[in-house]
Amino acid sequence: MKILVLEDNKRLANVIKSALEQESYKVDCFFDGDDAFEALGNGYSCFILDINVPNLDGISILEYIRLNHSNIPAIIISSNHDLEKIQKSYEIGCDDYLKKPFYILELVQKVKKLCILPKKFLKFSENCRYDFINHRLFENDKEYELTKKEILFLELFSKNLHHVASYEELEEYVWEGEETTLINIRSMIKRLRKKLPDDSIIIVKGMGYSLNKEVSLS
Residue 19: phi, psi to the nearest 5? Predict the structure, then answer.
């Protein structure tokens, strides 16, 4: 999973990055609100936002996130003890709030609680399952090699198993915000289907893709 950290104190940002990378998260750090805002669509699974940063502040970014990425966890960190700003952060929809100074372990535990996969395996059949933790696809004793985009596609369904992933959502999450084409999306789906049981991935006409109702989490 990939996390965006907005923190203008470079030393603290690097400590956060190091601690989260030790837990196998991918971390992108930004020291300026404008730069973080430009990167919001790059397929992040969690946002850690300082309130007082240059240019666009963390609360304004949180407002945008809640309008466009309503289900993605967001943690506010700040040395500002203003109760109005704390209240506003929760009203907008932050999932947690940490006052500086704080223990890095405390932040890591909050991230792990918010971003943990609900189950370890995506089960396609009795013999075929995908391991979310280690990013490995097995059918009996055979392991299939997965590309990064195939892994991100399967991860997209980890928290909302049978939702319909729109083309826009695939572009944002699987292509990490990079513009792509329907041809590229269909080609990736076609390659992944060859590694899965028949009809595991279904087309929802005019909307996008979903997983067969027989697919389960375990």
Answer: -65, -40
Question: Per residue in 102-117, is it b (16+ CB within 10 Å) or e — as a string?
Answer: eeeeebbebbeeebee
Please tell me the number of Cα atoms within 13 Å of 49 on its side-chain side: 32
Last residue of a domain, one of 91, 115, 139: 115
For residue range 126-152, what is the model confidence (pLDDT) as tens digits? Answer: 999 998 878 889 998 899 999 999 999
Q: How far apart are CA 26 and CA 20, in angstroms?
A: 8
- Reduced to 3 states (helix: H, G, I; strand: E, B; else coil), residue 33 is helix
Percentages helix, strand, coil for the chain (3-state, rounded to 5) are: 35, 25, 40
Tokens of 187: 């080609």
Q: Tell me the whole-structure pTM to 2 decimals.
A: 0.59
- How many Å apart are CA 99 and CA 143, to the nearest integer? 45
Range of the domain at 76: 2-115
Last residue of a domain, one of 115, 131, 163: 115
The answer to whether the beta carbons of residues 34 and 80 sit under 8 Å apart is no
